[in-house]
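User: Please fill in residues for this 529-position structure.
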C-alpha cells in the first residue's frame, strides 16, 4: 500500500491557510518559486536606418523610455504629450500645483514648501530591476520606503469597540496561536501522513521559535512573548518600574476581529523589504527623462486620430488648451503609450484584433487623498515613523511619510487609498472637498488628533482625471488569453506600450518593461523593411 504524500502545491496551500502569507511566502522561497523582473540590463539596438523616424504618443515613463532608447539607436524622435508636463501617472503634487477633473473642478495644492504627495505610484520594490537601473543611470537619490511598521495600527470598526490595535500585537498573537494549534496537531499525530517523525520534530522546534511557544507548546504571556509584541511597561534603568509583559489577545477574539487579514501585505513579494522612493517625490525620474528629451517634446497636444499606411504613420491632433484647427505630424513608425481607456475613444487605424483588444480592456478605479497636518502627531504622540495603518473603513489605509522623520512643522500623509472596490467608486463620485472631509472623518476614528491638527488636503480620483480616465488596465485570466497578445503585436507600423501592455499592471516596472520590449520588436521590423 502506498504511503499518502503531499504535493508541494498542497503543502503551500495548507501552510497559507493555516499560518497566513508570511509562512507561505517563506515556503515559496525555499521551494524556488519566487521570481524576479525579467529585466537583464540596458537594451542595445543596432543602428537605425538612415533618416528613420518615430512619433511617440504620451510622455509618461513608457513613452519617454521608448523615445530615449530609439533616439539612442539613431531615430529622429517626436514626442507628443497631452499635458503641459511629462511623467503621466508618475506624478507628484506640491504646493501651488493646480489640476482639473473631467467636470472642470479645479484644485490648487496648499502644501507648505518641501511637502509633497504622490497620487499615483508611491513606492518601488527592490526587484523592479528596470526602474532601479534607470534610477542609477540618471543619478536619482533613493530613500527607503517603510511598508511595514510594527507600531502602526490595524483597525476593524466592529472589533475591540472600534479601538485600533498595534500591528505588532496582532501579528505576534496570530502567529503564536496558529503555531500552538499546529504544534497540537503535530503532537497528536495528525501530520503523520504528510511528514516523517523527524520532520515532525523539526516542525515543532520551528513552531516554538516562530510562534514563541513555551516548553508545553503554549502561546501565553511571558517576557519572551513581549519581546515580539511589546510590553505593557517597558524595561527601564536604575530604579524605574519593572517591565510588565503584555497580555496576548485571545484566539477567538483575534479570529473574529478579522485583523489577521491586515498583517500580511508586507510578506507579499511586491511589498517585501527593501522598497524605495525617490527623494523629494516620485516624479524625479520623469523630470530627469523630460530634461533629456525636452527638445523632442510637444506639450498640450490632444491626439484625435492615428492613421497609417504601408509607408508611414500620421497623427492628427489639436492644442489641448485651445481646441480648434487640426494639425498633424508624420513619421515612419509610432509607439503609442496612450492608455487604452482613452485610445478606445479615438480613431486609430489598426486591425480588428488590436481594436477589439483596446476596446475590451477595463480600467481599475482608485482614489487617493493627501492630507497636510500642522505637526507630525503620529510621530510625536504615537511613535509611528513611516509605514501603513490598515482599516476596514472606506479609506482602507493611512500611510505615514518615510522621509524627514522628526522634522518640525507641517507634514503630509496619505489619508485614503481606496481601490478596486465600491468605496473607490463612491469616493470618485464626490467632489474633492467631500472626499477630503470623509478622509478626515474616517481617519479621525484612528487618530483623534485629525480635527485639531488638519491644515489642508488634496484628492485625486483617477477615473475623473482627463488624461487617463482610470487608474490602470485590469486583466482577467480569460481577457489576457483572448486579447493580450493582440494588444502587444506590432500592427503594421504601430506598437502599443505602457503598464496596460504588461504582466505587471499598475506598476512603473510594467510600463518600462513594456516600452523596452515594444521598441526592440519595432526596431527589428524597421531594419528589415
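Assistant: Residues filled in for all 529 positions:
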Amino acid at each position: 500500500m502506498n504511503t499518502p504524500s503531499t504535493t508541494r502545491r498542497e503543502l503551500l496551500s495548507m501552510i497559507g491557510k493555516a499560518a497566513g502569507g508570511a509562512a507561505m511566502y517563506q515556503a515559496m522561497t525555499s521551494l524556488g518559486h519566487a521570481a524576479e523582473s525579467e529585466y537583464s540590463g540596458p537594451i542595445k539596438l543596432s543602428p537605425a536606418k538612415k533618416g528613420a523616424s518615430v512619433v511617440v504618443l504620451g510622455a509618461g515613463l513608457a513613452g519617454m523610455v521608448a523615445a530615449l532608447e530609439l533616439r539612442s539607436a539613431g531615430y529622429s524622435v517626436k514626442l507628443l504629450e497631452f499635458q503641459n508636463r511629462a511623467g503621466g501617472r508618475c506624478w507628484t503634487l506640491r504646493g501651488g500645483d493646480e489640476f482639473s477633473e473631467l467636470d472642470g473642478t479645479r484644485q490648487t495644492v496648499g502644501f507648505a514648501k518641501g511637502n509633497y504627495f504622490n497620487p499615483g505610484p508611491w513606492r518601488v520594490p527592490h526587484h523592479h530591476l528596470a526602474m532601479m537601473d534607470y534610477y542609477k543611470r540618471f543619478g536619482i537619490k533613493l530613500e527607503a520606503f517603510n511598508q511595514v511598521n510594527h507600531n502602526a495600527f490595524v483597525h476593524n470598526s466592529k472589533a475591540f469597540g472600534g479601538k485600533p490595535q498595534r500591528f505588532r500585537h496582532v501579528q505576534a498573537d496570530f502567529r503564536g496561536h496558529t503555531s500552538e494549534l499546529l504544534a497540537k496537531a503535530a503532537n497528536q499525530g495528525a501530520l503523520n501522513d504528510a511528514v516523517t517523525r523527524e520532520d515532525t520534530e523539526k516542525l515543532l522546534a520551528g513552531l516554538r521559535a516562530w510562534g514563541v511557544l513555551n516548553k508545553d507548546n503554549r502561546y501565553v504571556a511571558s517576557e519572551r512573548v513581549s519581546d515580539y509584541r511589546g510590553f505593557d511597561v517597558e524595561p527601564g534603568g536604575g530604579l524605574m518600574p519593572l517591565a510588565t509583559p503584555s497580555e496576548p489577545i485571545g484566539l477567538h477574539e483575534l479570529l473574529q476581529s478579522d485583523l489577521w487579514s491586515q498583517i500580511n501585505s508586507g510578506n507579499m513579494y511586491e511589498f517585501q523589504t527593501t522598497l524605495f522612493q525617490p527623494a523629494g517625490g516620485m516624479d524625479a525620474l520623469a523630470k530627469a527623462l523630460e530634461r533629456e528629451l525636452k527638445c523632442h517634446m510637444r506639450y498640450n497636444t490632444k491626439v484625435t486620430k492615428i492613421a497609417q499606411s504601408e509607408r508611414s504613420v500620421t497623427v492628427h491632433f489639436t492644442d489641448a488648451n485651445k481646441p480648434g484647427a487640426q494639425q498633424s505630424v508624420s513619421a515612419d513608425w509610432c509607439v503609442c503609450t496612450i492608455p487604452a481607456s482613452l485610445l478606445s475613444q479615438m480613431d486609430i487605424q489598426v486591425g480588428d484584433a488590436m481594436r477589439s483588444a483596446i476596446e475590451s480592456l477595463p480600467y481599475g478605479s482608485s482614489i487617493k487623498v493627501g492630507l497636510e497636518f500642522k505637526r507630525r502627531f503620529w510621530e510625536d504622540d504615537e511613535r509611528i515613523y513611516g509605514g501603513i495603518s490598515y482599516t476596514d473603513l472606506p479609506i482602507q489605509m493611512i500611510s505615514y511619510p518615510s522621509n524627514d522623520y522628526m522634522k518640525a512643522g507641517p507634514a503630509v500623509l496619505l489619508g485614503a487609498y481606496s481601490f478596486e472596490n465600491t468605496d473607490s467608486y463612491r469616493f470618485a463620485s464626490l467632489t474633492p472637498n467631500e472626499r477630503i472631509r470623509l478622509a478626515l472623518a474616517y481617519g479621525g476614528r484612528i487618530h483623534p488628533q485629525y480635527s485639531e491638527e488638519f491644515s489642508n488636503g488634496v484628492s485625486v480620483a483617477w477615473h475623473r482625471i482627463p488624461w487617463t480616465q482610470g487608474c490602470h488596465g485590469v486583466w482577467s485570466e480569460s481577457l489576457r488569453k483572448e486579447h493580450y497578445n493582440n494588444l502587444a503585436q506590432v500592427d503594421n507600423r504601430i506598437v502599443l506600450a505602457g503598464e496596460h501592455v504588461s504582466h505587471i499592471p499598475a506598476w512603473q516596472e510594467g510600463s518600462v518593461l513594456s516600452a523596452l520590449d515594444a521598441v526592440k520588436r519595432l526596431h527589428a521590423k524597421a531594419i528589415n523593411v
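For context: Residues 172 and 250 are 12 Å apart (CA to CA).
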